[in-house]
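Blinded run. Sample ID left blank on purpose so nobody reads anything into the name before looking at the predicted structure. Input follows.
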Amino acid sequence: MTRTGAAPGAAAARTALADAAPAVYWLDDPARPEALPPLSGHAAADLVVVGGGYTGLWTALLARQRHPGRSVLLLEADVCGSQASGRNGGFAAASLTHGFSNGMERWPDELARLDRLGVENLTEIGRTVADLGIDCGWEQTGELTVATAAHQLTELTELAGEMRSAGHDVEMLDAEATRARLDSPTYLGALSDPHGTALVEPARLAWGLRRACRDAGVTVHEGTRVTGLSKAGGGVRLTTDGADGPGTVTAGRVALATNAFPPLLRRLRLMTVPVYDYVLMTEPLSAEQRAAIGWAGREGVGDAANQFHYYRLTRDGRILWGGYDAIYHYGSRIDRTLEQRDATHRLLAAHFFTTFPQLEGLRFTHRWGGVIDTCTRFSAFFGRALDGRAAYALGYTGLGVAASRFGAQVMLDHLDGADTERTRLRMVRQRPLPFPPEPARSAGVALTRWSLDRADRHDGRRNAWLRMLDRLGMGFDS
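Blinded prediction complete.
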């Protein structure tokens, strides 16, 4: 969507943001559970999971189901679900490859298998949510990808044809049909995928998985940062730092699920970069406001630009609006002070009212940011370390709500030394190209963001820099 900071909705944006709390809407919930005690002293377990986001929680839960006789310990530096897993838009996508196009470009020979595994994975998440009674607003709404420029409409039409040829049940909508689903004067058309996405309340999903882990016999310690790991005998030794001081853990095997935070393995330090993504949440829409936009199908929505927005309805009729302005900080800096960025929140609010001018006067109640990990191939990658005693899954690039469960299965396959359909995938066996070290990394990210913005403003034409990255199979995305 072609936009600038001086968008027509800038004045409305300032007013709408005036009372927005600098807090994560999903975490600002009376249902939020109490934090669990940190690890004190020494502990031992057959499997230690480092990280209490979706990947770590699924790993711990599935490990207990696979091997009920083995002990599992999960260590989280903060509170389970407090970072990316509790701050995202709540889009649970069936795709394991960050979309059909990225999968077709990188793994065309196995994309049909990856798509099938992705659908099975999403179905199992929905079944688990139902079986465990997790109150997280799970809705299989599908998704609309909207075109707001002529070149995007052309690209989406071609993509719809390719997806239908591959067996996907998708439909291309013209402007009138799109606006009948959700009314914005900016829409020229949309690709409708009614089956590939579910919506979820992300923090409640994480809290439900944490409860399920504990019910299944997983020991969970929060407020416990893992500071190091090394081989010890036939297993692994981990050092920790918690509120009660340093500790040690002896493990048979370790699953690393640290997402954007610094990895414990030196080999991974250039494989991902942390990127801050920003989000707004509106107050509940009135009946008149809802009638002005429609949205009876409650689909998740994203626009087709390189710098894209994503948005969805909540169960109480609010609109979550996020994306567009992914921010990388020099030296892969991560800091709580970076979770609020006035310039980006104002820009997002202005874009909101450009998209929905009929909602002028609506106010935002929450604004926040969160750090995610991105890698050069835009989808998760996997591997083993310490002679097979450790496994990792990283690089979800903003599309890990559902794919994290698949990542957990891959890690457990690797730790079991199992030969499975998952481990035989080229997508699983290959690793992305690393990012360069600083200062080249920061300069490359800045040039890529500038080039993507320029492409959005010039009919999608990719400059020499982007074409070179395409040839190398590299990129930067949120």
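Unblinding after everyone has recorded impressions. The domain at 10-29+140-194+272-374 is CATH 3.30.9.10 (D-Amino Acid Oxidase; Chain A, domain 2).
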